[in-house]
Amino acid sequence: MKTIGLDISRAIGFAGKEKYDSLRDKAIDAISKLDEGTGAGADFLGWVKLPSEITPAMIADIEATAATLRKECEFVVCIGIGGSYLGAKAVIAALSDSFADFYAPAPGSPKVLFAGQNIGEEYTSELRRLLKGRRFGIIVISKSGTTTEPAIAFRILKDMLVEQVGADEARRLIVAVTDKAKGALRTLADREGYKTYVIPDNVGGRFSVLTPVGLLPIAVAGFDIAALVAGAADMEGTTRLPGDDNPAETYARMRNALYQDGKKIELLVNFNPKLHYFAEWWKQLYGESEGKEGKGIFPASVDFTTDLHSMGQWIQEGERTIFETVLSVKEPAVEERITDDAENLDGLNYLAGKRIDEVNKMAELGTIIAHNDGGVPVMKIEVHSLDEHTLGRLIYFFERACGISGYILGVNPFNQPGVEAYKKNMFALLGKPGYEAETAAIKARL
Ligand code: PA5
Predict the structure, then answer these.
(1) Which positions are annotated as active-site residues?
(2) Cβ atoms within 10 Å of 218's Cβ, excluding its own
(3) Half-sphere exposure (CA, 13 Å, Cβ side) for 435?
(4) Which of 79, 89, 144 to mutate to test the pocket of ligand 1 (most atoms within 8 A of CB)?
(5) What pLDDT is stored for residue 2 in this prediction?
(6) What does the DSSP assignment read for 242-305?
(7) What domains appear along the chain, each with residue ranges and CATH number?
(8) Quick one: DSSP state of residue 106?
(9) pLDDT score of 3
(10) Which of 20, 255, 307, 400 has CA atoms 20 to 30 A from the CA of 183?
(11) Edge to edge, what strands does the sheet with 111-115 contain?
(12) Range 186-209 average pLDDT
């Protein structure tokens, strides 16, 4: 399967073909806005042609940096949050052994860890305990270079690294990915002489996985970033022109048609636990891009069959405001069969000899039919297998569809004014210099 399969046949009946068809012109307009840069947020469209513009020299440079960290470290800690974290986490989790964390690091194959994606005191302390006396490196990622969560983690881990290996050696083991000129991280990186990569001005955090933000950690984890980018470039070609054979347009139109029909929540469903973090990445992409001006589908996700045993009842019979998008992987990378048992006390012999995935696929089909019967529109996106090329295609597919969908919805998909509100309050409560008036105002409300 060169592209991805998208089936809307179990969704279109809910919104009606007429409504779906009526969004054709808006979709064509959205695609032209993305390509011509004539829509809202046009200065953040660097991601549109990113896959085809990445050069072999850029890939080789990232791979060389990754090779150094791989050779020299047992652990590499990637520090970042939101768009500076989720893309790498999603790809690494999708491609890694589920139990990778329980194997000891092998020479030349460090464990990739994440920090600065929360402000957990236990998390930080436990990470420091793990890294004590171990050879580790740091990739610190922040486009603005001023985000509080990664700044705290970096300050603590940098000090620890300097203490363990000395300032000169620490400098060699730290790589910064940040703005070309602005922000505290850029100032620090230049002063210390860290190896740095630039996040292009015109690529927002949630669209940055195919820049060094995502590519460097993914390469350090040992995955093929050239194949990831090639997959994305393939999908850039597939989704360039409007039309019924453009899966990004189809997905964007279908979800907007459902939204107009009162389906306010989209569940991204997987039947493969390796895709858990891919859904987290997708939630940020769609949530930050569309949730504004009192509008936007709420992006949620579930891991099936696990969550069928917790959320299944609500999905089957709760308020009919949801639709599902099932992300289905056709072929697992391995074969594992159900064994025969002479006594058959568990009654499972009717499955003996079958692949586990055969059962999983029947659970998937049975669930889709059941939920559809229960009033849930279901779209299905099918990929052949989980590999770098496929993930690159999926990433670009969802990015492109997000841009189209946001413009159909009538918002600027490339800003995120709402994420500042909590920061302002937090700084006021912490007494950050420069926030004196806000501190007085918020304290008066407590
Ligand atoms: O999409 C976004 O813009 C945000 O999620 C940011 O990526 C996140 O807040 C981290 O920002 P920064 O990379 O500036 O530290």
Answers:
(1) 288, 309, 423
(2) 29
(3) 16
(4) 144
(5) 56
(6) -STT-HHHHHHHHHHHHHHTT--EEEEEESSGGGHHHHHHHHHHHHHHH-BTTB-PEEEEEETT
(7) 4-41+231-408 (3.40.50.10490), 50-228 (3.40.50.10490)
(8) B
(9) 75
(10) 400
(11) 111-115, 75-79, 136-142, 174-178, 195-198
(12) 97
Dihedral angle of Cα 165, 167, 171, 174, to the nearest 10 degrees: 60
- Nearest-atom number in ligand 1 for the CA of 288 is 1
Structural tokens at position 58: 């850029």
The CA 106 to ligand 1 mean position distance, Å, reads: 32
How far apart are the CA of 83 and the centre of ligand 1, in A?
Answer: 5
Q: Are 186 and 145 in contact (CB under 8 A)?
A: yes
Q: List residues near ligand 1 (CB under 6 A).
A: 81-84, 142-144, 147, 150, 204-206, 288, 416
Report the distance separating Cα 92 and Cα 70, nearest Å: 15
CB atoms within 10 A of CB 421: 9
Q: pLDDT per residue over 92-143, tens digit each?
A: 999 999 999 999 888 899 999 999 999 999 999 999 999 999 999 999 999 9
- Ligand 1 pocket test: pick from 44, 81, 288 the residue with the most ligand atoms within 8 Å of its Cβ: 81
Residue type, 157: L
Tell if the pTM clears 0.90, that is, is over it: yes
Q: How far apart are the first and last CA of the chain?
A: 58
Q: How far is the CA of 283 from the centre of ligand 1 (A)?
A: 14
Cα of 18 vs centre of ligand 1, distance in Å, is: 39
Outline where DSSP puts E strands in 36-88: 75-79
Ligand 1 probe mutation, 78, 79, 84, 416, most atoms within 8 A of CB: 84
For the CA of 80, the closest atom of ligand 1 is: 15
Confidence of residue 24 (pLDDT cuts 50, 70, 90): very high
Protein residue closest via CA to atom 8 of ligand 1: 82
**Ligand 1 atom at minimum distance from 178 CA:** 13
Ligand 1 centre and the CA of 150: distance in Å?
10
Distance CA 10, CA 1 (A): 21
**Cis? peptide before 305, omega within 30° of 0:** yes
Spatial separation of the C-alpha atoms in residues 381 and 393, rounded to whole Å: 12
